[in-house]
Write a structure and sequence with these properties.
heterodimer; A: mainly alpha; ABC transporter involved in vitamin B12 uptake, BtuC; 13 helices; 83% helix; B: alpha/beta; 2 domains; six-stranded mixed sheet; three-stranded antiparallel sheet; 9 helices; 9 strands; 37% helix; globular
Chain lengths: 276, 235
């Protein structure tokens, strides 16, 4: 085991992926609690597809991928939020529409320019090699911003998540905080997408929240547990990916599935055998 | 000056008017029930009082130093809330949010307010429980405690007894009357005309406009009320 870890950390690209990945896993887990409880899980999925489209276009035009995808995905986040809030359009259908459109455009742009190669495979399912030194600095800075804002507005985010009408009536600008959550989610997704892959990044948002909700009874408990679960699963996934030569993103998701199953059984056992 | 004063208030959504030319005053210490059929504008008027929807015309003014964000509100429960993993303490404390402004965390004074309201509604035994594990009546008490954290003067309740069984319903009505006697002004939207007339001091009967506004005893003698209760008996 010790041998494995020594070998693991001897590769600088793995250390980079771990630093960025753990921070992203942390952000995604915190935001995920709010998104899942507000029934906005689909927004995460939709945004990652938009991110894929933006990334493909950026690569085709030979510009820095983060510089293009951050603004595009942030704009998409606000758009998706508005669609979800308005009751007239069927929100989930509209999100699916936007997601598949972005995916299709991304695939076409790529196949017309560079062709479908390993790069595209990397965007879709993630690559542990994706992070350069400059990416790490930018990603760490973005994650720090997300974490800081989340902690500062924790109580407001709770109030808006639990009861938007009450929060609004007592003078909290619920729309602003919804936008804040969407904005932070967009940044987290763009940063995490390159390691986890566009198809799998939304699992980082949804799994930890659902996992901790099997067992925890308070909001703070759910938030802290999902953060812990998310970081542990990410680490386990990367180690597993290294040990068994499996794709990084998929390995992290499998680790999440395993932990979810354990928590689910624990929750089931507790509700069966009395409320201790 | 009255606690709330509505003058010729007109409200609506897109090209539909929900509330038209409504004027009334609510005094400090009143217990007002807003009744009316579905689509009569009750909930829209409540949104206006809460500042969630701006009136198209007319004016809603607060007196006695009441501020817009110092209103306690008991909304109808949403699906999101029923299985929400939050402790009772977290929910009640979130009622103090309007006292904090931009400060990120709650102060000891705010925690004391939350504790006091938990005691007042006798839900002390539930503090550590999860909101989703409570019964419907207990959940309403928790939300009422949260609303009291936000206000000392005015509670707005939106059909608070929906889905509760008769025993819990009458307990909740008794609790609300008790709060009113302690000096909290109550404005309640309700479907339940019989209980409204029984508990409330004043009735506001709406059908886009105001059909009746006055003391409950007078309401019982009015034509509007007779038509409605008569309709109930036949229906």
């Amino acid at each position: 085991m010790g041998e494995l870890f020594r070998e693991l950390f001897s590769y600088s690209f793995i250390s980079r992926a771990l630093i960025v990945g753990i921070l992203v896993a942390l952000c995604a887990a915190l935001l995920g609690v709010s998104l899942v409880l507000k029934r906005y899980s689909m927004i995460g999925d939709g945004l990652s597809h938009v991110g894929f489209g933006a990334l493909s276009v950026a690569m085709a035009m030979n510009v820095a991928p983060l510089a293009v995808s951050v603004p595009v995905v942030v704009i998409a986040a606000f758009l998706l939020l508005r669609i979800s809030e308005s009751s007239k359009i069927k929100g989930d259908a509209a999100i699916a529409l936007i997601a598949s459109s972005a995916l299709a455009i991304g695939v076409i742009v790529t196949s017309l320019t560079t062709g479908m190669n390993t790069d595209v495979y990397g965007y879709m399912f993630g690559s542990i090699l994706a992070m350069s030194g400059g990416d790490v600095v930018l990603s760490v800075a973005l994650s720090a911003v997300v974490l800081l804002l989340f902690v500062c507005f924790y109580n407001k985010i709770f109030a808006v998540t639990f009861d938007e009408a009450f929060a609004q009536a007592t003078g909290t600008n619920a729309k602003l905080y919804n936008m804040l959550i969407a904005f932070l989610t967009a940044i987290t997704i763009v940063v995490g997408m390159r390691i986890m892959g566009a198809m799998l990044i939304s699992s980082l948002i949804i799994f930890p929240a659902l996992t901790s909700m099997r067992v925890c009874r308070s909001f703070k408990g759910v938030v802290v547990t999902s953060a812990a679960v998310s970081v542990v699963c990410f680490f386990a996934g990367i180690v597993g990916s290294f040990a068994f030569s499996t794709p990084a993103g998929a390995s992290v998701v499998v680790a999440n599935i395993a932990v979810f199953a354990c928590f689910w059984l624990a929750g089931l056992a507790r509700s069966r055998f009395g409320k201790a | 000056m009255a606690l709330i004063s509505c003058k010729n208030v007109t409200m609506g959504y897109e090209n539909q008017l929900a509330v038209e030319d409504v004027s009334f005053d609510i005094e400090d210490g009143d217990y007002v029930c807003i009744v009316g059929e579905n689509g009569s504008g009750k909930s829209t008027l409540l949104k206006g009082l809460l500042g969630l929807l701006k009136p198209r015309a007319g004016e809603i003014a607060f007196g006695d130093g009441l501020k817009q964000n110092m209103i306690g509100y008991l909304p109808q429960q949403t699906i999101v809330q029923r299985d929400f993993p939050a402790s009772v303490w977290e929910v009640v404390l979130s009622g103090c949010l309007n006292r904090r402004g931009m400060r990120p965390f709650y102060s000891p004074a705010e925690r004391r307010i939350a504790s006091a309201n938990i005691e007042k509604l006798s839900i002390g035994g539930l503090v550590k429980k999860s909101y989703r594990d409570l019964s419907g009546g207990q959940q309403q008490r928790v939300l009422l405690a949260r609303a009291l954290c936000a206000t000392e003067k005015l509670l707005l309740l939106d059909e608070p007894v929906t889905g509760l069984d008769p025993v819990v319903t009458s307990e909740l009505y008794a609790l609300i009357r008790q709060l009113n006697r302690e000096g909290v002004t109550i404005v309640m939207v309700s479907h339940d005309i019989n209980c409204s007339v029984h508990y409330a001091g004043k009735i506001l009967h709406m059908d886009t406009g105001v059909l009746f506004y006055g003391p409950s005893e007078k309401y019982l003698e009015s034509d509007v009320c007779r038509r409605l209760l008569g309709g109930d008996a036949h229906g």
